[in-house]
Amino acid sequence: MIEDPSRPRAPPKPKVGRRGSGCDDAIGSTQRAVFKTIFTRRWASLHVNHRSIAASAALIGVLTIVAKLFVAGREIAIASRFGTSGLVDSYQLALTITTWLPMMIASVTAVVVVPRLVALRTCPVEYRSFVAELNGTMLLLGLAVAALTLIAAPTAAALMASGENWQTLDLTSTLSQEMAPLAFLTVATAYFSVRLQALQRFAYSITEAVPALAIALFVLLPGELSGSTRLAFGTLIGFLLQALLLGGLTQSEDVSVGGFKVRHRSAEWRPLYRSALLMFAGQIMIALTLPIDQAFAARLGPGAVASLGYANRIIILATSLGGIVLARALLPVLSAAVATGDRELAARHARQWAWLLMGLGALGSAAAFLLSDWAVSLLFERGAFTRADSIAVAAIVRAGALQLPFYFAGLALVQWLAALGRYSTLLLIACVALALKLTMNFLLVPIFGLQGLMIATAAMYALSFAWQYYTARKS
Question: Residue 124 has what pLDDT?
Fold first, then answer.
């Protein structure tokens, strides 16, 4: 039969295979294309600041999560070998003594120096001169802090471990002096991190896995080394390796590490002095919460500091992850917006991120309530760490989860205030928040024990967020 060419042909029937029809495949491809188009358009419609922050946060988040997995491994190793013994109490207290002041200096340096380095990138000559002077300043500061830590360690140990037995007190003092070089290494790693953050070179985040890996290896190393030697040597070697890695990254990513000058002739120093002083005072107020909580815990009996420390490690896995990711991503972008005169825009973006982060923090808090028992058991319940220890630590973690929404929301607003140079406002907020924290500690610890410390921390962050948001709305 001859086919009439003028007659329209019927469309071919789709072939049916085991995975569905060709029509289904076409529909699926169309849906994926539509979704991709919507996502692309939505992403393109975002302000460039939001895109920059989101992209940076995603990269930092992935690298930091990998690093935190090593931190979790370190805690698992310590819990498995030492449980909630007095040695862990002493190590936690010694770690606080040797890193408390350096970590405070690190926070101040990041918040104060990053905006100045971002603004100076357009002036290469001034940038190199300021960096050389900054190098010399941080070197001398790190050495001075290490010497101060060595001298003051016995006194600090006596103050913080006064509620412990004499063996724990003596070991805390010994460990603090042995780990005194950690103060210098902490300042060095923080400074190199600040240099890389200002450049928005965020690959350095992965180096935070190095100290955790070194500590875990020393703890699990076979041999006759004492527990205190394993913890002290592992900590020092780990932070030394991290400092060397960060120095190499700075050398390759920046114009160079730079020279060393101890004089302060750059015009940047005059405003920097006042900013650093105000921010340093504010950081003292916030940083005091950790030793204050440990001092309250030490009076609740043996093992209380260790239990609080394990619970804090889980909470800090969340808060430090958020703090690292968001502060590092937000501060350079908001600083650049302020430097170009877009202050109102920076404030609006900070408020938008604050509400988004509060929602994410609420989800994190709910997850912590539901999964705390499972998480503590998975991470720590082995060896000397018993089921009773897991139940006690999980209860502290649930109370600590209350702080997450306010902590995360406040992160965005703190970066905006720092980019704007409102350090006096940050200091005032920190002073009032610490006063509230102390008051709540005295009221809640006799009733709720270690959980009361966590509830007081949540109240402190709630007050801080409310004040910061009010300031952002009125500016």
Answer: 75
Cα dihedral sign for 118, 123, 128, 130? negative
Count of other CB atoms within 10 angstroms of residue 140 = 12
Nearest to 108 by CA among 291, 260, 287: 287
- Give the list of residues 6+ apart from residue 416 with CB closer than 8 angstroms, or none: 330, 334, 346, 347, 349, 350, 472
This model's pTM is above 0.70: no
Name which residue leads in pLDDT, 75 or 191. Answer: 191
**Torsion angles phi and psi, residue 258, rounded to 5:** 100, 170
Tokens standing for 205? 């985040």
With beta carbons less than 8 A apart as the criterion, state whether 299 and 306 touch.
Answer: no
Cβ pair 360, 325 in contact under 8 A: no
Of 21-25, 171-175, 279-283, 391-395, the poorest mean pLDDT is in 21-25
Q: Is 246 helix (H, G, I), strand (E, B) or coil?
A: helix
412-436: pLDDT as tens digits: 888 888 878 788 888 899 899 999 9
Contact between 424 and 475 (Cβ < 8 Å): no
Beta bridge partners of 17: 20
Among 188, 173, 6, 214, CA closest to 91: 173
Which residue is associated with the tokens 């692309």? 40
- Among candidates 195, 237, 242, 203, which has minimal Cα distance to 217? 237
**Measured between alpha carbons, how far is 459 from 466 in angstroms, rounded to an integer?**
11
Domain boundaries, the chain: 48-474
| Confidence at residue 404, expressed as pLDDT on a 0 to 100 scale | 93
21: phi then psi, degrees, rounded to nearest 5: -85, 165
Nearest to 186 by CA among 134, 227, 146: 146
Q: Partners of 16 in the beta sheet?
A: 21
What single letter denotes the amino acid at residue 353? W
Q: How far is CA 108 from CA 50, 187, 351, in A?
A: 25, 11, 23
Contact assessment for residue 201 and residue 253, using Cβ atoms and an 8 Å cutoff:
yes
How far apart, in whole angstroms, are the C-alpha atoms of residue 257 and residue 62?
A: 26
